[in-house]
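Subject: Sugar ABC transporter ATP-binding protein structure
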Amino acid sequence: MEKEILRAVDLHTEQEREPLLKGFRLQVFSGELVGLVGLNGSGKSTFAKVLGGEVPLSRGTLALEAGSVHVIQKETRLVSNLRVAENLVLAHGWKPARILSDPGKKARLVEALLREYSPRVHKDDLGGSLSPAAQCQVGILKAFLGGARLIVLDRILEYCSPKEERELLNLVGRLKAKGPSFLVTYNKVAPCLEGFDRLAVVREGKVVRTLHRDEYSPDLAAQLMAGGDFRRNKVHQAPAVRDRTGAAALSVEGPVPFVLGQGEILGVHDGSRGRAMALFRQLLGEEGKEHLAVHRGIGVLSEALFEHQILPGWKPGENLLLAVAKRVSGPLGILPGRVVRHMARTLPGEMGIPEGKLDLPARNLERDQQFLLALRKAVLGGAKVLLVENPFQGADLVTKELAYQRLGELAAGGMGILLFSGDLGDLAGFCHRILLFQEDGSWSIRDGLAMGEETVVQSIL
């Protein structure tokens, strides 16, 4: 009988008293490749963070072997100034006595490992010079060398090209044959149907169904993923749009011309992300490629957990001061002391940041509070149009609900919002209109509030 590597029973987690995981259950056995599929905010990444020790449990049973789990996330990086071989040697499973008895053994093993499993990566390449997908490959090999029994890939495939995705899944399949189990989180169904032993479908904080090989059905899995989250978006329908006639917040020319109205939320969806990101860069302009800030009246929130919008070592009030300093400073460029004191305490408090965290660095804030801080910073900086790139990517349920609420409030106040997402389920039922890039190269603008669930399901396949 296969050995049980992981058992999660009735897991519950909370953030600011809001539930994230709600009765989550999952088992993983030795030598298995399990897909954990769900829409953004469904809870799959929260579970990965529980395994990584980032999110505490409020109740439930989690049984696994100590030191046997290695979690690799999009944010996971190699040591940039060390060579690939040196990064691999950092794997915790090396036996010092064996290395000292044969100093050249580790070098030979690393070279052989790269040659067999990742031939495009050279042992002397610097970790920081590799692409995200190549860094992930090395990270998987490092976990394998370290003796991990279960390797978790959280949201890695969502940032890969189709070719990179195939290479990573091929590597996973080959290493699985050597012993370790793999748990892969993803928001798409089709890539997980070939080679995966089971698919666990996550929705609203729990596994709603586990599909085995003989039950694989793309339509069934997509419907299970979309059902609850799609309907829940309907609760957050954007406010009525102001008359667009003569009230354009933004006019875009070029291959894909459109007008964004004041108070309108326009979604942009492209499954491959290439054309949507080209539009995103066009709106930022050449200067905006290097500096994600308020640019010509355009405020930006990127998917990188707002790390480009807030200074993690600064206090919340200091971050907000930086956004408005140029707008409210005196003739000498100095803010009056009373203004500084007011903003440092009052503004963060009005955003719901607890008194006890006002004097802590922004990195100590919860994820939803970081979102609020980045959003408020963009607005205070003078933005009239807001570009929001994948705000729900990896977001937990609380942050996703909060994002819907705050974006709707800004639109009600007249701000034009462009909401980019690789998950159509995040946009349908919330955005007024949705710009859809099709696989055949065409594009169209659809009514987002009237978009049916069938269209969303097809986008997940």
